[in-house]
């Protein structure tokens, strides 16, 4: 366990060499359509377009995309259930227009999630962070995102090392041992990650690191046909939705 599945898919994507600003424009337009347009048929068109682009031109493996979206879908399902339940003096009950509210919430959330995952599975963070700086996103926000991204790999490395040691000692051989090993794994990973993060901070401070860590990014020229796609696809989805409605 040395990396993130979504990050690996982004590095292997057929859109890896495209300008991150072009992909950001396309995905931002799809997210805006998911938020603004009526869920029917806007959300369906947005989700279908995002999945088709990811599995088609971007060549993201279908299994990878499904693995990335399954937990957001579970969270969306829980949110939809809580949105249709009302609590009053008589106890639990169904909220007015429960089915419609749940459908609208789930439709918008699934469409927006698919659009965000299209960006995540085609654009590595090392390309996206410099683009955010060029878009004048506050430096503090970009730096927090960068540090969080780096610490994810510290966490994954610690998790893999501790779990491998537990497996070698038959720590997951029975349900009782697995329950005990899971608790010890969580405690050890948090402790090791905290210690490595603290040492990283001390090392950067010792080198006089007072500003963000800047790195050189690859030159990725913008593509006019791709920009045209990023502009026309959201407009086309909006037009079709308004005509159908």
TrEMBL record:
It is found in: Cell membrane. It is a multi-pass membrane protein. Keywords: Cell membrane, Membrane, Transmembrane, Transmembrane helix. It holds the Pfam family CbiQ. Its main location: membrane. GO terms for cellular component: ATP-binding cassette (ABC) transporter complex. It comes from the Bacteria. The keyword Phosphoprotein does not apply. InterPro entries: ABC/ECF_trnsptr_transmembrane (IPR003339), Cobalt_transport_CbiQ (IPR052770), ECF_CbiQ (IPR012809). The chain crosses the membrane at residues 24-53, 73-93, 105-125, 226-244. GO terms for biological process: cobalt ion transport. NCBIfam families: ECF_T_CbiQ (TIGR02454). This is Cobalt ABC transporter, permease protein CbiQ. The gene is cbiQ.
């Amino acid at each position: 366990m040395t990396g993130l599945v979504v990050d690996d898919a982004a590095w292997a994507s057929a859109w890896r060499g495209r300008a991150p600003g072009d992909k950001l424009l396309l995905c931002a337009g799809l997210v805006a359509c998911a938020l603004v347009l009526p869920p029917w048929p806007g959300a369906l068109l947005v989700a279908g377009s995002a999945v088709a682009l990811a599995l088609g031109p971007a060549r993201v493996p279908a299994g990878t995309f499904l693995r990335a979206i399954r937990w957001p879908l579970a969270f969306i399902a829980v949110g939809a259930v809580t949105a249709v339940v009302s609590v009053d003096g008589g106890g639990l009950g169904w909220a007015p227009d429960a089915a419609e509210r749940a459908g609208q919430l789930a439709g918008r959330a699934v469409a927006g999630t698919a659009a965000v995952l299209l960006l995540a599975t085609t654009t590595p963070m090392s390309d996206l962070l410099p683009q955010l700086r060029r878009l004048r996103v506050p430096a503090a926000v970009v730096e927090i995102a960068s540090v969080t991204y780096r610490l994810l790999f510290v966490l994954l490395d610690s998790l893999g090392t501790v779990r491998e040691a537990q497996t070698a000692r038959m720590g997951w051989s029975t349900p009782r041992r697995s329950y005990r090993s899971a608790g010890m794994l969580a405690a050890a990973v948090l402790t090791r990650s905290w210690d490595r993060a603290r040492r990283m901070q001390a090392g950067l401070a010792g080198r006089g690191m007072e500003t963000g860590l800047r790195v050189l990014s690859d030159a990725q020229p913008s593509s006019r046909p791709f920009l045209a796609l990023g502009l026309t696809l959201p407009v086309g989805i909006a037009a079709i939705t308004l005509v159908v409605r």
